[in-house]
Design goal:
By secondary structure, the protein is mostly beta strands. It has 3 helices and 10 strands. Helices cover about 10% and strands about 45% of the residues.
Length: about 160
């Protein structure tokens, strides 16, 4: 997978870029453990609303959060969806996204801050990076995608 360089010369971080609908997002690679095809999701009764269920990945049951629902987009998951397996608070969490496009290089100094964005979910946004080629990527802060209560709920045993 070929990396894409930001149009700014000082690239000081790398992020996994992915799409949800027509919007391109990114998460810093330091949070991402792997990207896999989204397999069947085991849905259990009594799960919190934010949790879709669990995916079995190499003998681990990883909780799954659909970012389409998190961002209040239509909730139809595409057949070829991907799962970003991220480490949050010492726990693996899978985020369902429509597609991934690889690792991109960005500049923290040249990103726009969330206050300059007219979007209802700016709490999740670290910044916006222009990577050239008429591409703008919304960089998410994975730690803010789940609240403290939601992270604690991931630690509970489920049926």
């Amino acid at each position: 997978m070929k990396g894409i360089r930001s149009k700014f010369s000082e690239c000081d971080f790398n992020f996994v870029s992915f799409a949800i609908g027509s919007v391109e997002f990114g998460i810093d690679v330091k949070y991402i453990k792997e990207v896999v095809r989204c397999g069947p999701i085991l849905r259990c009764p009594g799960l919190p609303r934010f949790l879709e269920g669990f995916v079995k990945l190499r003998h681990l049951h990883i909780p799954v959060v659909d970012l389409r629902k998190r961002f209040s987009l239509d909730s139809e998951t595409k057949e070829d969806a991907r799962l970003l397996v991220a480490s949050l608070g010492g726990r693996l969490v899978g985020f369902v996204v429509d597609s991934t496009s690889g690792i991109t290089h960005g500049s923290r100094r040249s990103r726009l801050r969330p206050a300059s964005v007219d979007w209802p979910h700016t709490d999740y946004v670290d910044g916006i990076v222009d990577v050239g080629q008429k591409r703008t990527v919304v960089i998410l802060t994975p730690d803010s995608l789940l609240s403290e209560d939601e992270l604690e709920a991931l630690m509970l045993p489920y049926p």
